[in-house]
Design goal:
Blueprint lengths: L1 H7 L10 E4 L4 H12 L9 H6 L2 E6 L5 E9 L4 E9 L8 H15 L3 E6 L2 H9 L3 E3 L13 H13 L2 H13 L7 E5 L3 H8 L7
Parallel strand pairs: 4-5
Antiparallel strand pairs: 1-2, 2-3, 3-4, 5-7, 6-7
Helix pairs in contact: 4-8
Length: about 210
């Protein structure tokens, strides 16, 4: 983890053609993102309301202020935050936007002294999860030490909060039928240390 942070503390701007800002989406932006996500197989989906009400959401914009992508982060307990959605509009991919959004959201989560959970089946996202040192699991059941004391929060509370949304249930069923994807979700977990809190606090992420 030390080698990772020593590398990103001085991370240069990924691309001068975009900027990362922390703000909720507008209604129009949220509708664009929700429609685009409905056409993907890897993201179950979040509502327009969730996108517009989020307090910890990072948006990639071009110099005109037009949205290129977004990363939605949700607190589901006092100690835990989920980096719930990382999405870049198709025409703006492969420009470093996704990585910049991910790193900015991750560092912000550390600054807020939160432990991290990410659920994904996207190979690029899973690769970034490994790169920042998350522990990868195929399930949230029967977690090993040191996560065992958080088992109730991760194994029960998180699932209740995540599934307690009719839109998400409908999207899970619809995408299972339309895309017939058999790729399993994996879970990335990180108990953030005091040292990492301090490093993140002193870090100014690119474009933020």
């Amino acid at each position: 983890m030390v080698s990772y942070f020593s590398r990103i503390v001085f991370l240069p701007p990924v691309n001068p053609s975009f900027n990362i800002r922390k703000r909720p989406l507008t209604q129009q932006e949220a509708r664009v993102i929700v429609r685009a996500i409905k056409r993907t197989s890897n993201i179950t989906g979040y509502t327009v309301r969730e996108w517009t009400n989020s307090k910890h959401l990072f948006v990639a914009e071009n110099p005109k202020g037009e949205i290129l992508g977004a990363c939605l982060t949700l607190d589901f307990s006092k100690e835990w935050t989920e980096i719930a959605v990382l999405f870049v509009l198709k025409e703006h991919r492969r420009n470093g936007i996704g990585q910049a959004l991910f790193l900015t959201s991750y560092i912000d989560t550390l600054k807020r002294k939160k432990n991290v959970l990410i659920m994904s089946k996207n190979k690029t996202v899973v690769s970034m999860m490994r790169e920042v040192g998350l522990d990868i699991f195929s399930t949230l059941k029967n977690l090993p030490t040191p996560y065992r004391k958080h088992q109730l929060t991760l194994g029960l509370l998180y699932n209740i909060v995540w599934i307690a949304n009719l839109y998400r249930i409908k999207e899970i069923i619809r995408k299972a039928i339309v895309y017939a994807s058999k790729e399993p979700f994996v879970y990335g977990l990180k108990l953030t240390s005091s040292a990492e809190f301090a490093i993140a606090e002193n870090h100014t992420s690119c474009g933020a």
